[in-house]
C-alpha cells in the first residue's frame, strides 16, 4: 500500500503542477487512492490544500466507468507500444514465445544470462522509455483523439469550460510540500524519530514533549522538515545531528601528528643500529713492547671523536679503557 500511495502522491503533484489545484479529486476506494498520506486530517496532502476527496459509491458505477473507459483507451494504446504486450489482438504464437522468454529471465537468479534470457531483458522497457510512451499517449488523447460524446478533443472541451481566473497554481515550495509526506511525532530532548531514524535540532528543545508534524523527503533521508500541527515552520532537523566526536577535531589531529613523529623516530633508531652493525668500530690488537727498558713517555691524549650511535660510543670507550690498562 505504501508504494502505491507514494505513486499516487507523485501523480497528484504532477497533475497539480501542470493544471492547477482541483476542487474535487475523484478516485476509487483502493489502498493506493485512499490512505493517510492523502486523507489524514492534519498531515494528509488533500486536507492541507483544501481538496475534497470523492470516492466511488458501491452500486453506482457510473462515475467509475468514466475512469475505466479512459484506462482502457489510454492503457491499451500504451501497452501495444512494447514487445511484451500480450492482449487479445496479439499473435498467439509470438505471445507464447515471449512469455516463455520472460519466465526464463525471471528464473535467472543472478546467474549468467543465456541468449534467450538476454533477449527477454531487452524486450522489457526501461523506466524512461515507459514514461516517454505514457506522455506521448496522454498528449494524443488530450489533443488528437476526438471524443464521441463531446465531438472534440478533451483539451478543446477543457479550454471552453475552464475559467483561467479561477485556476490556482502552487509555488515551487508548495509543490515540494506535496512530495513530502507528513507524520505526527513527539519531540524528546531535541530529537524526533521517523522510520527508525533519529533527527535532531536545537530548536526542537522549545517543543519538548509536544506533537509536531514531520515532513519527509522519500528520496533524501538525511533531513526532515518539522512544523507545528498548525503548519508553521520550526526547523529542518538533520539525521543524527546530536552525535558528535568524542574529542575536538584539532586535538585528534594533534595526537595523530604526535604518533606519526614517534613512528619516524623509532624508524630512525632502527636505521642507525643497522648501519652500526654494517660498520663496526675497528679495535687495535695489543702488541708487545719494551717500555720497561726505557723511560715511560706519557701518551698523547686521544681526542674524543663524534659518535653517531650509542653502540659506537660504547665500543670506543671499551677500547680506550683497554689501552689505558
UniProtKB/TrEMBL annotation:
Organism (species): Rodentibacter rarus
Gene3D superfamilies reported in the protein's UniProt record: Ribonuclease H-like superfamily/Ribonuclease H, Transposase, Mu, C-terminal
Residue ranges crossing the lipid bilayer per the database entry: none
Lineage: Bacteria, Pseudomonadati, Pseudomonadota, Gammaproteobacteria, Pasteurellales
UniProt cross-references to InterPro entries, sorted A to Z: Integrase_cat-core, RNaseH-like_sf, RNaseH_sf, Transposase-like_Mu_C, Transposase_Mu_C
PROSITE patterns for this protein: INTEGRASE
GO terms classed as biological process: DNA integration
Protein name: Integrase catalytic domain-containing protein
Domain named Integrase catalytic: residues: 1-162
One GO MF term: nucleic acid binding
Amino acid at each position: 500500500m505504501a508504494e502505491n500511495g507514494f505513486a499516487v502522491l507523485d501523480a497528484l503533484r504532477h497533475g497539480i503542477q501542470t493544471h492547477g489545484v482541483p476542487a474535487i479529486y475523484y478516485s476509487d476506494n483502493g489502498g493506493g487512492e485512499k490512505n493517510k498520506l492523502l486523507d489524514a486530517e492534519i498531515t494528509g496532502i488533500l486536507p492541507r490544500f483544501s481538496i475534497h476527496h470523492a470516492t466511488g459509491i458501491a452500486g453506482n458505477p457510473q462515475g467509475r466507468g468514466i475512469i475505466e473507459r479512459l484506462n482502457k483507451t489510454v492503457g491499451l494504446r500504451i501497452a501495444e507500444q512494447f514487445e511484451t504486450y500480450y492482449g487479445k489482438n496479439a499473435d498467439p504464437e509470438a505471445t507464447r514465445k515471449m512469455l516463455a522468454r520472460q519466465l526464463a529471465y525471471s528464473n535467472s537468479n543472478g546467474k549468467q544470462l543465456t541468449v534467450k534470457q538476454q533477449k527477454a531483458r531487452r524486450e522489457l522497457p526501461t523506466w524512461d522509455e515507459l514514461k516517454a510512451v505514457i506522455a506521448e499517449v496522454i498528449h494524443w488523447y488530450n489533443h488528437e483523439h476526438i471524443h464521441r460524446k463531446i465531438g472534440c478533443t478533451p483539451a478543446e472541451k477543457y479550454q471552453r469550460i475552464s475559467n483561467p481566473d479561477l485556476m490556482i497554481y502552487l509555488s515551487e515550495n508548495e509543490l515540494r510540500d506535496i512530495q513530502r509526506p507528513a507524520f505526527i511525532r513527539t519531540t524528546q530532548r531535541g530529537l524526533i524519530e521517523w522510520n527508525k531514524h533519529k533527527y535532531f535540532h536545537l530548536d526542537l528543545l522549545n517543543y519538548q514533549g509536544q506533537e509536531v508534524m514531520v515532513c519527509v523527503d522519500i528520496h533524501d533521508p538525511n533531513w526532515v522538515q518539522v512544523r507545528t500541527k498548525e503548519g508553521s515552520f520550526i526547523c529542518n532537523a538533520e539525521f543524527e545531528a546530536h552525535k558528535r566526536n568524542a574529542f575536538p577535531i584539532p586535538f585528534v589531529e594533534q595526537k595523530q601528528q604526535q604518533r606519526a613523529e614517534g613512528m619516524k623516530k623509532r624508524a630512525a633508531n632502527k636505521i642507525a643500529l643497522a648501519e652500526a652493525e654494517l660498520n663496526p668500530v675497528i679495535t687495535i690488537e695489543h702488541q708487545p713492547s719494551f717500555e720497561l727498558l726505557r723511560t715511560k713517555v706519557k701518551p698523547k691524549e686521544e681526542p674524543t671523536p663524534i659518535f653517531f650511535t650509542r653502540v659506537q660510543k660504547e665500543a670506543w670507550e671499551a677500547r680506550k679503557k683497554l689501552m689505558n690498562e
